[in-house]
Amino acid sequence: MTMTFGRELSSRRTSGLIRAYAQENKIGLTSNLFPDILEDEIFSKMMRDPNFWISQELEEKIIFAISQSLDISGILYHLGTESLITNAYDLLPMDNSKVTLEELIHRIPILINRLTRTVSLNVEILNSKLAVFQFEYLHRYTEKWYDAIFFQGMLNGLAVLFELKEFNIQMTKTKLYGIHVTHKDLGPDIQFGADTNEYHFQWKDEPYQLSRSTLNKDDLSNRHKVMMVSKGEDTSEELSFVDVGEVVKKSRELAIENRDLEAAVEILKSFKYELEKKQLSIAKDLKLAKNIQKGLIPQIIPDWKGIQFWAAYSPMQEVSGDYYDYFPFQSDRLGIVVCDVSGHGVPAAFITALSKMLFTNYKYAKPSESFKHINRDLLDLVKQQGYTTCVYALIERDYRIVYSIAGHPRPILFRHKTGKAEIQEGEGTFLGMFPDGGDTYRDHSLQLEPGDKLFLYTDGITEAENDRGESFGEERLISLIEKTKDLSIQDSIESIINVHKEFTMGTDPMDDITLLGFQLSPRLPEFNHHKELADKHYKRKNFKDACDEYKKAHEILPRELITQLAYGKALANAGKYDEAILLLETYNRFKTNNYLSHAVLGFCYYKVSQFEKAELEWKKAHSLNDDNLSILFNLAKVYEKLGQRAKLKEMTDRMKRIEASFRHILPLEKKWESMLDE
């Protein structure tokens, strides 16, 4: 296609881009690379004649075509640098006298006129270290984003020639409303849509001076390409030579290296993006695993028959290999287990989940029997790819403790009468590692007295080190247990953990940490006294006095669930609904499957007109006892209050299916019919 163009620009910049494009795509320059844009003859002249001029329109078409497959911002920058370096010789005085950087800056407009007729340059030296360049486009021509980069590259050429070590070049203003490049060196605070195109060129060095040279390092025939850089006015002045050919060659090599570096950076960015996506996915999975494990490990163990529990648990990662739990054996025993799975993270968390299932399945009267079965099943499931250490204790009704050890730190018993703490006996091999491990497990026993405490823990406690490499150790742990003899089990555990944190301050955690303790309350006789009195008052429907006695018992053992529920019922019967709600909500966090607690809590919500919450609690109660007519009746009353006629009818129909003669059905049907009329 033949097109006619004006002549406003030197083709040097465009031919440089074409050469870079050909090199990048590994194609020759023997034929026209852009036949749809320009004629073969014009292409040939552009490539062989450095003084050939083309139109701004043609240059824009070629740049657009090249930029579709090549990031040209870095190339343009280095072409600008080369343009100044290769033309600077002609700007120097003919008599070989020296010029300063400031003097050469004032001559840059001459060079601009040799390269383009679309723009003029005004230069102002604000001080000995700062120059301002303002490029003004003639009224017939429009600003181009690629000019912004090319002109800044030219200013970089000044720094190269004068061997500046510290300098800064930034675009401060442009008429453009955006620059379609990713080049980072233009400037951080560019004013777009301004009335001019402005650059600031600032330097800190004492610049050398530049002059033409009649000398030549290598070849006299190339002396017109050599400039001499000097510093100083006396005979001891420093001299160096600038061979334009060598500088341009190095500049091009640098441009290629920069393009390769930018390509590598883009690849790294891509890898970084993919890595961040995977990390987000992993973080999401870990968060899910953490929440699942959080559901496996009890936040608080409720009081049991006068024994109070407390645990400190600190995983090293999102998910932990430490695990503790409790297992009620109907009403006469309670099992307590602390495990430490080999390794950390998700694999360890998987074995903790298996452990919970297995300990729930194997509730034998002897912990050693449970260990034998769990060891066998872990071997089958994990295939010796992981194991766990464990201490498992059964608490009897008479406060006798039967326990067994599987490769785990032995319990520490604190005797209230003597004020002394001692490590208990016991040994046995890991669970899930050796087929004959069942032969190593033995049962041991001890008797708890009021005030006695038993501590179960993982080796993350004792093996933790301070910043001097000293281990926390069993002796330090025993000493702290004895120092906290007068504290409750909760305060004792928290005090020990605070000391442990101070000891390891400034070091990274080496392992998961678990410390679980329980104590037979020294106030157990007092608790039993208040509990018996409260029960008697409740049976006589003397709810006020029952509340007073239950409150005293509850203060002694605040997490004893039987007393907590009885206290909540007494408060509800006494009309203290808000107090009952707080107490029963706490109870339901410990025990979610008690029909009565949800039924009473629903009643309390109903009495304070929180009908939606009453509905939710009574639905829970109904799910646990679905043929209870009173719960269905209560739900019907809620729907009556909420004006939900369809649900009211549904509850009425359910009651009729269970017992058609139920006396509350007829009034509800009449209410449903009246709502229909309304």
From TrEMBL:
Organism superkingdom: Bacteria
This protein's UniProt keywords: Hydrolase
Domain PPM-type phosphatase: 304-520
MF GO annotations: phosphatase activity
Family matches, as InterPro entries: Bact_Sigma-Reg, PPM-type-like_dom_sf, PPM-type_phosphatase-like_dom, TPR-like_helical_dom_sf, TPR_rpt
Keyword Hydrolase among UniProt keywords: yes
Keyword Hydrolase tagged: yes
Alphabetical list of PANTHER family matching this protein: STAGE II SPORULATION PROTEIN E (PTHR43156:SF2), STAGE II SPORULATION PROTEIN E-RELATED (PTHR43156)
Name of this chain's protein: Serine phosphatase RsbU
Species this protein is from: Leptospira ryugenii
Species classification: Bacteria, Pseudomonadati, Spirochaetota, Spirochaetia, Leptospirales
